[in-house]
Design goal:
829 residues, alpha+beta, five-stranded antiparallel β-sheet, three-stranded antiparallel β-sheet
Length: 829
C-alpha cells in the first residue's frame, strides 16, 4: 500500500493533469476532444483523430466541474434544438412531395400527348427549379447533420470522462453525496446524448426523403429534356396526318371527353383548396383590403378633381374599384398558392380576363380597343383548347380555326380606315401596319403547317405568337397600373414630406417609370423567347458571345468582361447620382450644418462610390490585381516626374474639400481675378467673374497663392467712400452730413456703426472718408452707388463745393515760336 506521501504526490500530479485538461475543457463546450462548436456550426466534416483514453476528474474538482457541466448541457440543448430552417423543411416537405407527385403526373400526361416546345421548355425550367430548391434543402440538412454529429461525439467523450470519474471515485472513500452527484451528471449526459442522437436521426431521415425526391426530379427532368430534344429534331417533319384526313375519321365523343376532363379538374382543384382554406381566407382579405383602398382612393381623386386637379388617368383607373381589387387578389393567387394544380391556374387566367379588359378599356386609346377585344377572344379559345386535351383531333381543328380567325382579323386591321384609328407613335410611325402584316404572315404560316401535318411547328409559331401577345397585354396593364399608382402615391401627404419629392417629383417619377418600362420590356422579351422555344438557344448564343475572348500575349479579355465592366461603372454612376440627389434635396435641408459641409459630404460620397464601383468593375471583369505590381511601380515613377502638377492639384482639391478655406459660393480675389466660386473639382475649380466669364483655376493655386476670401465666415463687408471738399468748409458740417446719409440707408448695418472721418489736408481739398458696413456683399455695388449719389446731392444742397485738382506749371525754357504763340494767347484773353 502506498504511503501517505506517495498518495499525496499522486493526487497532486492528477490535479495538475486535471487543470490542464480543464483549460481545454473551458475552450470547448463539453471539455471533450473534437472540433469546436464554430467548426460544427460551419458544417465542416469532422477530422478523424485517435481518441485518447478518458481521464477521470479529480475528486476535489468534481463539484465545480458539475456546475460547469450543467451550464454546458443547457447550452447544448439549445444548440441541438430544431432550427427554423430544419422546421421549415420538415413542414414543407410533405406538401412538396404531394405537389411533386402531382406535377410528375401532369408531366407524364403532357409527354403522352402532343406537347409544344414552349410547354416542354417551361416544364424543364420548372423541374430544374424544383431540383435546385431540393438541393438547397439537402445542403442545409447536411450542415445540420454534421453539426449534430460533432455535438454527439463531444457528448460521448464527456460521458466517458464522467464514467471514468465515477469508477475512480468508487474505489476510494468518496462521500456518498459526491457519488450521487456524479451519477446524476452521467444521467443528464445520457439524456442529452439520446436527444442529440434523436435529432440527428430526424435530420438524416429528412435527408433520405429529400434524396428520394431529388431522384424523382432528376428522372422527370431527363424525360422532359429528351422529349424536348426529340421534338426539336422533328420540328420540320410531319408529325400528324393532313387535317383533311381527320374529317374523314370517325368522330370521337368530344362531349364526354370534355366532361371527364372538367370533372377531373374540378375534383383536383377542390381537393387542393380544402387543404388550404387559410390561404383562401388570406385571398379574401387581400380582395377586401384592395377594394377598400381603391374605394378610398376613388373618393380622394374625385375630391381632387373637384378642386381642379388634372388627374384624368387616375380617375379612369379607380373608376372601377371592384375590377382593380379583383386584379390584385387574382395576382396574389400565384404568390399564395404557388403549388396549385395547372387547372386552378387556368381558372385564374380566365378570371383575369375580366378585370384586365375593364381596366384597359378605360385606359387605352379608342383605336386599340378592337385589338384588345380580339386578343381576349383568342385567349378564351386557347383556354377552351386546354380543356380539349383529351380530344386531340378536336383540339387540332380548333387551333386551325383559331389561326384562320387570327389571320383574318389581322387582314381586317390592315384596312386604311381601321389603321387610321390606331395612333402612330412619333418615333416609329409605321410600326402598327408592320406588326399587323407580320401577324398575317405568322398566323397564315401556322395554319398551313397545321393543315399539312406539321402540327408541332404550327403550335410553335401560332401558339407562341399568341402567348407573346398575352404576356404583352398583361405587362402593359401592369405598367399602366403601376404608373398611375406611382402618380397617386407620390402626391399623397406622407410622400410630400420628402423634400426631394416636393422639389423634383416629376424627375423622380419619370426615372421610376423608365425603370419599370425597361424591366417590363426585358421580361416580355425573355418570356416571348420562351414561348417561341428559342429561349435556350438565345441564351447559348449570348453566352457564347460574352465568353468569346481576345488574347494578346498574356492578356485575355472577353466581351463579357467589357460588358460587366461597363455595367458596373454605369451602376456606380447612377447610384452616386441618386445618393447625391437624396442628400442634397432631402437630408441636408432637414439638418443644420456648417457652410460647405454638404458639398464636402456629397463630393466625398460621389468619389467613394465611383472609386468603389471602379474596383468592383475591375473585379467583375476578372482582372488580376497582382499583375499590376510592375505597372503600379511605373505609375509611381510617372507621378514622381510627369504628373507632379496633377497630384498636387488633386491633393489641393482634397484640402479645399475638407479644410474648407474656400467654399462654393464664396467671393474671392486673386490679384486680377475677382469672382464667385461655382465649383470645386478634384483637379481644378471654376470661378465666375462679375463680367460673366468662367475662369478655370488649378486647385494648387488656391492653396499656394495669396487669396482674399470676402465671404469665408460671413457676408458682411465694409465700404469706404473718400470725399474731398474745398478749403474753408466746416469739417463738422461735412461729418454730420455723411453720418446722416449713412443712417438713412436701410441696407447699412448700425452695428458696427457707420463712421465719417476727416482724414487729411489734401493738396487741393479737405479729404474725408465715409465707412459703412453692409450685411450682404451682393449689395456692395448698389449700396456704394446709392451713397455716392446721396453724398453728391447733400453737398450740393448745403453749398459745399467739391474742388478740382489744381496744378502749377513752371516752364524753365521755351523756343521763340512757342513764346510768341503764348504771348498772343495771353493778349487775346
Amino acid at each position: 500500500m502506498p504511503t501517505f506521501r506517495a498518495r499525496w504526490a499522486l493526487l497532486c500530479a492528477t490535479a495538475l493533469l486535471a487543470l490542464s485538461a480543464g483549460s481545454v475543457a473551458r475552450a470547448q463546450p463539453l471539455g471533450a476532444s473534437g472540433a469546436s462548436p464554430a467548426a460544427a456550426a460551419s458544417g465542416a466534416e469532422p477530422t478523424a483523430q485517435p481518441t485518447p483514453a478518458p481521464q477521470p476528474i479529480p475528486v476535489p474538482e468534481v463539484a465545480g466541474r458539475a456546475d460547469g457541466l450543467a451550464r454546458e448541457l443547457r447550452e447544448l440543448r439549445a444548440r441541438i434544438a430544431p432550427t427554423q430552417e430544419v422546421e421549415t423543411i420538415a413542414a414543407g416537405l410533405g406538401a412538396r412531395t404531394e405537389a411533386l407527385d402531382q406535377k410528375r403526373r401532369e408531366s407524364v400526361e403532357l409527354l403522352a400527348g402532343e406537347p409544344m416546345l414552349a410547354e416542354l421548355g417551361e416544364r424543364e425550367r420548372e423541374w430544374t427549379r424544383q431540383g435546385e430548391e431540393l438541393a438547397s434543402w439537402r445542403r442545409t440538412l447536411t450542415r445540420r447533420a454534421a453539426s449534430l454529429e460533432q455535438e454527439l461525439a463531444q457528448v460521448k467523450a464527456t460521458e466517458a470522462t464522467w464514467v471514468a470519474t465515477l469508477e475512480s471515485a468508487s474505489t476510494g472513500d468518496t462521500p456518498a453525496e459526491l457519488l450521487d452527484a456524479i451519477r446524476q451528471s452521467i444521467a443528464e449526459i445520457k439524456e442529452v446524448r439520446k436527444a442529440t442522437s434523436k435529432r440527428r436521426s430526424e435530420v438524416l431521415a429528412l435527408q433520405n426523403r429529400i434524396a428520394q425526391q431529388e431522384l424523382l426530379v432528376a428522372e422527370t427532368l431527363e424525360a422532359v429534356r429528351s422529349a424536348r430534344v426529340a421534338l426539336r429534331n422533328r420540328l420540320f417533319q410531319p408529325d400528324s396526318p393532313p387535317i383533311w384526313s381527320d374529317f374523314a375519321a370517325e368522330g370521337s365523343a368530344v362531349g364526354e371527353s370534355i366532361a371527364t376532363a372538367m370533372r377531373s379538374s374540378y375534383a383536383e382543384i377542390r381537393a387542393f383548396l380544402e387543404q388550404r382554406q387559410g390561404r383562401l381566407v388570406a385571398l379574401a382579405m387581400a380582395f377586401a383590403l384592395a377594394w377598400l383602398g381603391a374605394v378610398g382612393l376613388k373618393q380622394s381623386i374625385a375630391a381632387r378633381r373637384a378642386a381642379g386637379a388634372e388627374i384624368e388617368a387616375s380617375a379612369q383607373l379607380f373608376a372601377n374599384p371592384l375590377s382593380l381589387a379583383a386584379l390584385i387578389a387574382l395576382l396574389c393567387t400565384f404568390w399564395l398558392l404557388p403549388l396549385a394544380p395547372e387547372a386552378l391556374f387556368d381558372v385564374v387566367g380566365l378570371l383575369l380576363v375580366v378585370p384586365i379588359f375593364r381596366l384597359l378599356s378605360s385606359l387605352l386609346h379608342p383605336g386599340f380597343r378592337p385589338i384588345l377585344c380580339g386578343i381576349a377572344l383568342f385567349y378564351l379559345l386557347d383556354r377552351l383548347r386546354d380543356v380539349l386535351d383529351g380530344a386531340p383531333r378536336e383540339a387540332r381543328l380548333l387551333f386551325a380555326l383559331e389561326c384562320v380567325m387570327a389571320a383574318l382579323y389581322c387582314v381586317a386591321l390592315l384596312r386604311p380606315a381601321r389603321l387610321a384609328k390606331i395612333p402612330d407613335p412619333e418615333r416609329f410611325p409605321r410600326w402598327p401596319g408592320r406588326v399587323v402584316r407580320f401577324g398575317v404572315a405568322a398566323f397564315g404560316t401556322a395554319f398551313l403547317a397545321n393543315v399539312f401535318g406539321f402540327f408541332s411547328l404550327s403550335k410553335l409559331v401560332g401558339g407562341g405568337l399568341l402567348e407573346s401577345l398575352y404576356v404583352a397585354i398583361g405587362l402593359y396593364a401592369g405598367v399602366r397600373v403601376l404608373g398611375i399608382m406611382l402618380d397617386v402615391t407620390t402626391e399623397t401627404a406622407w410622400a410630400q414630406r420628402l423634400y426631394f419629392l416636393r422639389a423634383r417629383r416629376a424627375i423622380a417619377v419619370e426615372w421610376i417609370r423608365r425603370a419599370i418600362s425597361a424591366g417590363a420590356i426585358a421580361l416580355w422579351v425573355y418570356l416571348s423567347l420562351g414561348a417561341l422555344a428559342i429561349q435556350d438557344g438565345a441564351i447559348r448564343v449570348v453566352r457564347a458571345l460574352l465568353t468569346a475572348s481576345l488574347t494578346l500575349g498574356t492578356v485575355s479579355i472577353s466581351l463579357g468582361d467589357l460588358v460587366a465592366f461597363g455595367l458596373t461603372i454605369a451602376a456606380a454612376v447612377v447610384i452616386s447620382r441618386v445618393v447625391q440627389f437624396v442628400l442634397l434635396e432631402d437630408l441636408f435641408p432637414r439638418i443644420r450644418t456648417a457652410r460647405g459641409v454638404p458639398h464636402a459630404v456629397i463630393a466625398t460620397t460621389h468619389y467613394a462610390i465611383v472609386f468603389g464601383g471602379f474596383l468592383l468593375a475591375l473585379a467583375a471583369a476578372g482582372i488580376d490585381f497582382t499583375r499590376f505590381a510592375l505597372l503600379a511601380g511605373a505609375f509611381g515613377v510617372g507621378i514622381g516626374f510627369g504628373l507632379q502638377s496633377v497630384v498636387s492639384n488633386f491633393v489641393s482639391g482634397l484640402i479645399l474639400l475638407y479644410e474648407r478655406p474656400i467654399q462654393v459660393g464664396d467671393i474671392i480675389d486673386m490679384g486680377d481675378l475677382l469672382g464667385q466660386v461655382k465649383r470645386i473639382g478634384i483637379r481644378s475649380s471654376t470661378v465666375r467673374t462679375f463680367a460673366g466669364a468662367e475662369v478655370i483655376v488649378p486647385n494648387a493655386d488656391l492653396i499656394s497663392q495669396r487669396v482674399v476670401n470676402w465671404t469665408l465666415s460671413d457676408k458682411t463687408r465694409r465700404i469706404d467712400i473718400p470725399i474731398g471738399v474745398k478749403y474753408g468748409t466746416d469739417p463738422e458740417q461735412v461729418i454730420q452730413i455723411l453720418q446722416s446719409i449713412a443712417q438713412g440707408n436701410e441696407r447699412i448695418l448700425q452695428r458696427p456703426p457707420p463712421s465719417a472721418l476727416f482724414r487729411r489736408h489734401g493738396e487741393s481739398s479737405l479729404d474725408f472718408e465715409l465707412r459703412v458696413w453692409i450685411g450682404n456683399i451682393d449689395d456692395w455695388l448698389n449700396v456704394e452707388s446709392e451713397l455716392n449719389t446721396a453724398i453728391n446731392r447733400a453737398l450740393a444742397a448745403a453749398g459745399i463745393e467739391i474742388p478740382f485738382p489744381q496744378r502749377d506749371l513752371h516752364l524753365r525754357s521755351v523756343d521763340r515760336d512757342a513764346a510768341r504763340a503764348l504771348a498772343r494767347e495771353a493778349n487775346a484773353k
